[in-house]
Amino acid sequence: MRVLYLNGPNLNMLGVREPAVYGKTTLEDIELQIKERASQSGIEVEFRQSNHEGELVDWVHQARGTSDAIVLNAGAYTHTSIALRDAISSAGVPTVEVHLSNVYSREEFRHKSHIAPVCVGVICGFGMGSYLLALEAVAQYTKNVVAKP
Ligand code: DQA
């Protein structure tokens, strides 16, 4: 099984960015942990980050036929990007939306996700745990839903 982790704008700044909200863990720390956990389960993980909406759209398209699932932290594009939502629908690759923070306990503009309706589920509020839980979620989803005839 192959899982593509995509990270959107400003997530390259984790570690220095608003540590009271996002903690001190860097994106590289998260990638290492995910890859370690994935290898224990025989899952292949690719991890990418971009600050550019179009690049994220391209990567979602490319996942079609090359990845079994996408774990997507779209950052602020979650709340603004219809293009990303359409990309997820177009590609048809099961996608889990993740957030480090609990977006529902924050500003009201973070309560709206354009991508959640086209994702198989949403995990938020557990810091790096959200990324780890998403790995478990896509493994279960692929086994239970996608594998059925
Ligand atoms: C975030 C939440 C978003 O609202 C915000 O714009 C981010 C990070 C999170 O992981 O908690 O960039 O996606």
CATH architecture: 3-Layer(aba) Sandwich
Major β-sheet strand ordering: 2-1-3-4-5
Structural class: alpha/beta
Bound molecules: 1,3,4-trihydroxy-5-OXO-cyclohexanecarboxylic acid
Count of the separate structural domains? 1
H/E element sequence = EHHEHEHEEH
Number of strands: 5
- Rg over CA atoms, rounded to whole Å, is 14 Å
Helical run tally = 5
Overall pLDDT metric: 95
Give the overall form: globular
Helix percent reads 25-40%
CATH C-level category: Alpha Beta
Low-confidence stretches: none
CATH homologous superfamily name?
Dehydroquinase, class II
Distance from N terminus to C terminus (CA atoms, Å) equals 18 Å
Please identify the oligomeric state: single chain
* Main β sheet profile: 5 strands, parallel
Summarize, please:
Helix content is 38%, strand content 17%.
Descriptive account of the structure:
- There is one protein chain.
- With 149 residues, this protein is an alpha/beta fold.
- It has one domain (2-146): Rossmann fold (3-Layer(aba) Sandwich), CATH 3.40.50.9100.
- Helix content is 38%, strand content 17%.
- The chain has helices at residues 19-22, 27-40, 53-62, 82-91, 128-146, and strands spanning 2-7, 44-49, 69-73, 95-99, 121-124.
- It has a five-stranded parallel β-sheet with strand order 2-1-3-4-5, sandwiched between helices.
- Strand 3, helix 4 (82-91) and strand 4 (95-99) form a beta-alpha-beta unit.
- The longest helix has 19 residues, at 128-146.
- The radius of gyration is 14 Å and the shape is globular.
- The mean pLDDT is 95.
- 1,3,4-trihydroxy-5-OXO-cyclohexanecarboxylic acid binds next to loops.
